[in-house]
Amino acid sequence: MLIFEHCPYLDLDRDPISLDICNANKRFKPLFHFHPGIEMIYVHSGTGSVIIEQSIHDVKPGTLLFVKPYQPHYLQMQVSPSQPYVRSLIKYDPAYFSEYLKAFPSLREFHDYLCGDAANAPVQHFPNRELETFLSENYDRLRRHPFRNRMEGHALFLVSLFHYLYPLWKRESPTDTPKPRDVPAVVRIMSWINDHFDEEFQLEALAQAVHLSPNHVSGLFRKATGKTITEFLTDRRLKQACILLKTTTSSVQEIGEKSGWPNFNYFCSVFKKRTGMTPKQYRNI
Hints:
single chain, 285 residues, alpha+beta, Jelly Rolls, Arc Repressor Mutant, subunit A, 5-stranded antiparallel beta sheet, 3-stranded antiparallel beta sheet, disordered N terminus
């Protein structure tokens, strides 16, 4: 089930930049979810995989994830007493942070690139431990010499992090994009759903597009993601509805139709079941 994490997860007005550096996540549970702010995760210890939009990536020590607002993602980590999951987690409101970047045009351009719609490698691997050292040393310095305004200190930490990442980030070019025949079938399935989520769903049409039988498509997708195709389709439609509710003045019924739910009552029912609130309540929070 897709979970929308709203105010209890990150109150962007009260806490626009949140830092949780080098902590063991002992209660980690895989959760397919999205949220309005940006989330950066650096993995100190642990292995697994992550699904971000229509891509699947390996996760290991030295991996850094950059998850954009409203971007569905599903992190699976192999956690055990002998193999803990230790990560640094940074969550922030990009609009708030952009104000601090105005004095740094190159960093602001880099941040805009990461937040843009173009494919921009949301997962990076840093094989050495230099980034880990950077995070721990700068956070320790911040705690030893706290700013009177806590958010100012957090913003400076984040500016320093982007200054550190700017020359190291691998930026994809058109030649880095895999050819269709080289793309895993499950990623082609996700891509097709992303292109057709607002239409009436037909499994046969999807299977034909990815050159597999309907039964093979369903089994392959569930094995790779832990979700059914119907669940993933609902997740994609819900993401679109949340974005439109926050960024447009269209009626709730129009938004339901644009998101793939022509039946207004069913749209409201699914939305409330998944988010815990009605579309109107979500729009007003």
